[in-house]
Specification:
Length: 319
């Protein structure tokens, strides 16, 4: 077992290739996932508590570094499924886990491993491809003996389930211990590539808003001069497609592209709907990259007359 502690300064060699990718933190409620996310991002990220259950995962925060960009995404919690919706949500969680580059499994240092942890660990074991880091959180609450016991128990848990942790890292987000080290250990597990988000783009927006923005960007491409501010996009519904096998999920997204005047319809839709189709294809690809799941995107163009001047409409459109 290799347990990491910070023995040397993290080194970000300028020769190392730039990396960018996604990680998600999983773990029981209260395991310290949000606090750790905030500590890594280095700034308080508002928790979007009122997310509808149908949403997939949200970008919780982005760690910008010289050598890498780490995007922390969030999934709904994994539950013992009692209902069909519960099962579907679990499928969503598994899909996310399979799509991210790294999974961080948070286990509080001050609580013995329980059935809830085992349930999650077992699910993790079935995700073969994605590297899994065990993160022992809240180490400030225990002495070194208790910490050592916890580390051994976690190592053991991996062995029982037939996998190796990529790392086992004790951290304290509250005492700011080893949080930087955790980032250093995650970064080499990310694929090489340029930053995926502009610097300073620290988002806590519900993903519908981000999706709407992607569609809006695509819809404005090439026609910005004709319709600069006349487009608003609203994602009306996001639902996992029923009756899909667990390994082939599909997310149905229904969105409206609002324009101000009927005369603008032709510009957006294009001859024989060709342009709208292109907008759909382009934004769908980006949405899939954002969510890490296949998407069926249904776009409708609607006229919301003079919406820019109507406060009620504006609110509805999220302005
Ligand atoms: N002492 C100590 N407390 C911590 C630490 N990290 C988190 N906590 C506390 O543990 C509690 C739960 O932390 P959260 O970050 O909300 O846990 P979570 O896993 O995001 O919880 P859910 O949102 O319910 O899944 C909070 O009261 C935190 O203040 C830590 O490093 N040390």
């Amino acid at each position: 077992m290799s347990v990491r502690s910070q023995s040397s300064e993290p080194s970000a060699s300028s020769e190392a290739p730039h990396r960018a990718g996604f990680a998600c933190f999983v773990g029981r409620p209260n395991a310290g996932k949000s606090t750790l996310t905030n500590a890594l991002v280095g700034q308080k990220v508002a928790i979007t508590a009122n997310q509808p259950q149908t949403t997939r995962h949200t970008v919780r925060g982005i760690v910008h570094r010289e050598d890498a960009q780490l995007i922390l995404v969030d999934t709904p919690g994994l539950h013992k499924p009692r209902t069909l919706l519960g099962e579907r949500l679990n499928d969503v969680v598994r899909t996310t886990w399979a799509e991210v580059d790294v999974i961080g499994f948070c286990l509080p240092a001050n609580e013995k491993l329980g059935p809830g942890d085992r349930f999650i660990a077992k699910e993790l074991a079935s995700i073969k491809k994605t590297p899994k880091i065990a993160i022992v959180t809240k180490t400030d609450l225990v002495d070194s003996k208790a910490l050592a016991e916890q580390l051994i128990a976690i190592d053991q848990l991996g062995k029982e389930l037939g996998f190796e942790w990529a790392e086992i890292v004790p951290v304290s987000a509250v005492a700011d211990k080893q949080v930087g080290l955790l980032a250093d250990l995650i970064v080499p597990l990310l694929p090489e590539g340029p930053a995926l988000y502009p610097e300073g783009d620290l988002t806590d927006e519900p993903e519908q808003v981000m999706i709407a923005e992607l569609i809006r960007e695509a819809a404005l491409e090439g026609v910005r001069d004709e319709l600069p501010h006349s487009i608003a996009v609203v994602v009306e519904e996001m639902l996992p497609r029923e009756d899909r096998p667990a390994d082939k999920p599909l997310l149905d997204i229904h969105a409206f592209v609002y324009i101000e005047r009927p005369s603008q319809k032709g510009i957006i839709i294009g001859p024989k709907g060709k342009r709208l189709k292109e907008v759909g294809i382009k934004s769908r690809k980006q949405i899939e990259a954002l969510l890490g799941t296949p998407v069926f995107l249904d776009l409708h163009v609607k006229v919301a007359k003079d919406w820019q001047r109507d406060p009620r409409q504006l609110r509805k459109l999220g302005f």
